[in-house]
């Protein structure tokens, strides 16, 4: 007994000396071992927090959103399939609580967001390579940090990479009230682009219109208004060179009709569950270009690119100067994750508040 | 009477001295003053052949094809609408019969093809700026010259401008037996590209398969065979980076399914009269790029480009070495133009012989 206690005491002493690790520290994580209904297949599990290796950091998660893509990943309906068992969660913000011996550029107390896909952010603590996280300033809001790497980046890249837009140029988008759409509106405002924003007619349309205009939307039109609009005929507004589509079907077709000759439509979602239909004449005689965008793939292709870090810098700068707001959200405690899952699963058309898990 | 005769004689003498013009020389042309059924709205007319101005040349047409786009233009169903009254005909080959004083680079007897769209080639003679025609070698066959500027150029540009193809890369196309499709097959062979060619099942499919294979087709598949094909799974054939579509609808969708990640489909026709439908997931997760091509527009944008004259040179070289054959054709005399119109109007799916008007 005495011997065992002494061994334990020595072991604790070594760890304390190294100042890396609090003994008996335990992480709680969500995990799924098979694809299926998230409410059924996701459960909690505890695990000891390992000591960080040389280039590793231990991160205490602060907040992690529940995105529709997280739900699809758990259901096995998403092209990204992390090996099972897997911890869900692709985005989030955490605080560094200890660092490995080889880590100089991060220290305890730093705030970080994931730099890689499918890090598994729905857990109280995680130990990752220092290269897998990006330090963000503390003045960046918790919600903005937790939701930095998907929607704002998607909006940024779609506005930057497909068409060479100049201030004064017009961009049209459907699903304009989606989380990504709100980012598009604000980045357009910041870059001097004029945005035409299509939303479905609904109860409270005036309120929504007002909300989007406050974000910087130049025009907000319902699908029906788009059909009859004269805004591109008056000559006051250039025809759009870029259309962003997260709806598909008839709505995408209506949006496409307003594109300028040689214009590009970029699809990043398909809320109507209908494909994108392109008239042959629009391809041949109007030279429309139909593309798609997937942030996950862009991240893989551009993991260490200058473009990527310049994008983070510009987005964070816009967020800290309030040019770019985070999404409408509801914080729930990590323990209430089922509420967050349920509500995200029943969101219709990406409308509504984003659920964010908060870790105490 | 005597005075009048003398005046006339002097006038004739002046013209003869200038050596530009044979008096009483009359051109016959086809003309339409309104859009409609080509058989009804197109009629013949005679006109004196004017004297060429400084930079002009008088061309005696030798042969001019009747293309489906010519029919659509007369019907008013084509986006190109020459001012009325108009002489139909977009392609052809002629012989220079006289040149203006400022013309040094063309001489009597030279063979030329139009360098501009909608020149109006369905006439015995035309007077145009020397800049509007391209001299072609006499060893170039009459049919090849008369049909140089649309189908071979369309095939060339689609294989050159959308995807950076390397020898060994695969190209897939539907409507492979179309005039353009036959050019695609032969240019692929010349450039070391492997072509997968989709055709509709039909009586005489074996003969057609053999014909296309003789042109250089690596694979010829019916639409049904395409659905079940294993050729891309065996690993022997790379997945196509480029698909060429002149059909649309379900057929285009089946072809699209075989494209490699990041691959491009270029639409240049829509024989099924159905639009191009693209699954949202193919755009987002497979990064497919859906484009269109219209030779008329390319010509406008690149009228004086180096690319254009290099293309003509390469195509003519391929034609004179028999690497690239002209289309199956039927020559009819200019007087029989109604037969050519009728037959071109009833061609189903661009299959069959191209009618070429021959001028005596």
From TrEMBL, chains A, B:
Pfam families: ADH_N, ADH_zinc_N. Keywords: Fatty acid biosynthesis, Fatty acid metabolism, Lipid biosynthesis, Lipid metabolism, Mitochondrion, NADP, Oxidoreductase, Transit peptide. Residues 36-356 form the Enoyl reductase (ER) domain. InterPro entries: ADH-like_C, ADH-like_N, ER, GroES-like_sf, Mito_Enoyl-ACP_Reductase, NAD(P)-bd_dom_sf. GO terms for cellular component: mitochondrion. The keyword NADP applies. One of its GO terms (biological process) is fatty acid biosynthetic process. Its main location: mitochondrion. GO terms for molecular function: enoyl-[acyl-carrier-protein] reductase (NADPH) activity. The keyword Lipid metabolism applies. It is found in: Mitochondrion. Its EC number is 1.3.1.104. It catalyses: a 2,3-saturated acyl-[ACP] + NADP(+) = a (2E)-enoyl-[ACP] + NADPH + H(+). Belongs to the zinc-containing alcohol dehydrogenase family. Quinone oxidoreductase subfamily. This is Enoyl-[acyl-carrier-protein] reductase, mitochondrial. It comes from Tribolium castaneum. The gene is AUGUSTUS-3.0.2_06794.
